Structure formats: structure tokens, C-alpha cells
Known about the structure:
This protein is 46% helix and 16% strand. By secondary structure, the protein is an alpha/beta fold. The chain folds into two domains: 3-87, Rossmann fold (3-Layer(aba) Sandwich); 92-134, no CATH class. Strand 3 and strand 4 (42-43) form a beta hairpin. It is globular, with a radius of gyration of 16 Å.
Amino acid sequence: MRRVSVVGTSGAGKSTLARELAKRLAVPYVELDALMHQPGWTPRPDAEFMDEVEKATSWPGWVVDGNYMRFVIEGPVWRRADTVVWLDLPRRTVMRQLIARTVRRAVTREVTFVRLRSHAEARRWLESIVPSAAG
């Protein structure tokens, strides 16, 4: 086990598991969200993103965390992976973990991969991708 893809719903624990697994295997941890989203939550163009995913998975070992179907399942991640971990937890567990993570991030002002530190920044980002959220 040297090339691992970790997939699952938001809040299932993909990032936590993937980081720990990468550490134990002594291989790079690749967070696809961090590759996809540029400053201001601007998505990277598909061709650029595919290039980044290709580069990240060209090494002999890695743990990739993310659910981008075209790039993971249909792309280089699963083609190159020797192991897939699919987290399929009960909804109550996922919701408990999501709520705990959200509260922790709000209290500690934890910086996420896209560097959102406040509700105002999160709202601006949300409004930029979902115009109906502005109302």
C-alpha cells in the first residue's frame, strides 16, 4: 500500500484519515481541494487541475484526499492507486463530525486550505459561487 485514494462524503473524516495514513506510510499527502481552489476560492481550470493531479500522482507513493469524479475515479488517481478507502459512515456520525468541525473552526478561527477566517469571508465566497445565497 503506497498509492492510496481516500473518498467519502464531506465530514466523513477523509482529510483526517488521509493525513494520518500519509504520515504513517511516509508519503506525501495530497488534498485535492487545495489543488483545485486558488485564492478567493477561484477554481483552477480543468486542464490545469488535471496537470496538478497528474504531477501529484506521478510519484511512487502518495495519499490523495478528494472526490472529484473526473479526476479521481475516471482520471489518474484511481488508475494509479493501489488502494482505495471509501468512507461510508452513518449520517448521524457524519453530521456529528461536521458540527464539531464547524464549531472548532469558528472558535479557533482555524484557517482552512482556502484561508477563510470569518463568516463574512465565507459568505462572500458562497455568494460568488451561488448567486441566490446573496438574498
